[in-house]
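Researcher: Good morning. I'm working through a list of sequences from a screen, and I'd like to move beyond sequence-only analysis. For each chain I'm collecting a predicted structure so we can compare shapes side by side. This is the next one on the list. No need for commentary yet; just the structure.
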Amino acid sequence: GGLVCLIGQILVIKTKMTTARILVLFELIGVFLAAIGIFDAISAFCGAGINVPIIGFGASLAKGAINAVKANGILGIFTGGLQATAGGIAAAIGFGFLFGIIFKARTKKM
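Model: Good morning. Structure tokens for this chain:
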């Protein structure tokens, strides 16, 4: 996890990439690692350090899509990733809504 964060911080400091682009890049890395079948080996070594960040989410999307394609055919491309990550997506939406109600949003002062 620390190495993933270090790489992200270096990208923020040394490049003109926005944090949103870095987020998408990390997600796509997770999808790629799961698609070629090496994410599980990396996950066994790194544990939560690779599973908790967005890379793990990308890998979960890819694994869900791959399993759904095997079970349901080509339609699984669209349904598998969402089925595999529905709990995390629902929690993010629910907690975001809850915190939006509890806390007052403010514009960041530069």
